[in-house]
Amino acid sequence: MTKRALTIAGSDSGGGAGIQADLKTFAALGVHGMSVITSITAQNTYEVRAVFDLPLNIIEAQFRAVVEDIGVDASKTGMLSNSDIVKLVANLVKNYGLPVVVDPVMIAKSGASLLKEEAVEALMRYLIPVATVVTPNRFEAERLTGLSINSLSDAKKAAKYIVEELGAQAVVLKGGHIEGDESVDILYYSGTFKEFRAKRIHTKNTHGTGCSFSAAITAELAKGKPIDEAVKIAKMFVTAAIEHGLQLGRGCGPVNPIAWLAVPAEKLFVLENLQRAVEILEESGHLVATLVPEVGMNIVMALPKPYAKGLDSVAGVMGRIVRVGDKVKAVGPIAFGAS
User: Fold this and answer.
1) Sign of the C-alpha dihedral, residues 44, 46, 49, 52?
2) Which residues of 285-312 are buried (b: 16+ CB within 10 A; e: fewer)?
3) CB 132 within 8 A of CB 170
């Protein structure tokens, strides 16, 4: 049966974050994505121009329409602008017994506030206690705990606080805003810490990072993965999305959730094209053999932008192509990074 994931969040008209990023992530990870829109934002890569919170009855109607017909294996929350929306969503996921990943969205990438001050208390009191996983960044965790976070040790204290004092089942405190050569996320679950490390990617195109990460956890939970495994896959997923982020607009461009599918697909396309090219050369050896130098030759193909990142993005024939009498022969297989 197709697994089903639900996002309860705001709409980003720029397509980089919010339900748009969540639905891309769900699709890339092979689950059926559904949405409950809580707020509509007029937003691009550098500013939020306007916000309209949907009426509570419309939010509830969207939720019930989806849950009572299609069903939900796991859910997530994003932008919940005010305390009334927070309380409504908390009651709905609790009453229907849905696993829920809470992304405590407070500030847009542009710096605009997406959570009213009075809603922070409601988030802590009503929603976090019913959360399966909470995914704050450094600044959100500081706001939730009142602790200053400047190191991994600080992050562990804050993560433990969110579970043991605020009542979440698990928390992943994201390390993107904590200095270091690596981005280290801290999972605290069942009294145990786990670290998930990835190279730090220096780019401004990070709009939608938190949304895509929490959506990836949700998708994996919907598939039945345990929390730690879901976080592990989500970390790899979002790292690829950041690495292949899109240079769009005048501000912070969006991450690229489709990279999870696109990179393997483009690699297969390159390998198949090169294989056919080698076959043509070998079939036409009597025409080209005299053109092959003694040191051999090669034929290569690179991944397209934005997926080409270096020599490892170029495929060729291992050992090159050599002349054998009046024929030509590929010495080895086709592979990326071959020479």
Assistant:
1) positive
2) beebbeebeeebebbebbbeeebeeeee
3) yes
Asked, colleague to colleague, whether 4-256 and 260-336 share their fold, the answer is no
Domain 260-336: which CATH class? alpha beta
CB atoms within 10 A of CB 333: 12
Please list the pLDDT of the chain residue by residue as tens digits (339 residues). 899 999 999 999 999 999 999 999 999 999 999 999 999 999 999 999 999 999 999 999 999 999 999 999 999 999 999 999 999 999 999 999 999 999 998 876 666 677 888 889 999 999 999 999 999 999 999 999 999 999 999 999 999 999 999 999 999 999 876 777 889 999 999 999 999 999 899 999 999 999 999 999 999 999 999 999 999 999 999 999 999 999 999 999 999 999 999 999 999 999 999 999 999 999 998 999 999 999 999 999 999 988 998 999 999 999 999 999 999 999 999 999 987
The domain defined by 4-256 carries CATH number 3.40.1190.20: yes
Nearest to 221 by CA among 207, 235, 203, 234: 234
C-alpha triplet 275, 266, 295: angle, nearest 5°: 40
| Annotated domain spans of the chain | 4-256, 260-336
Catalytic residues: 174, 206, 208-211
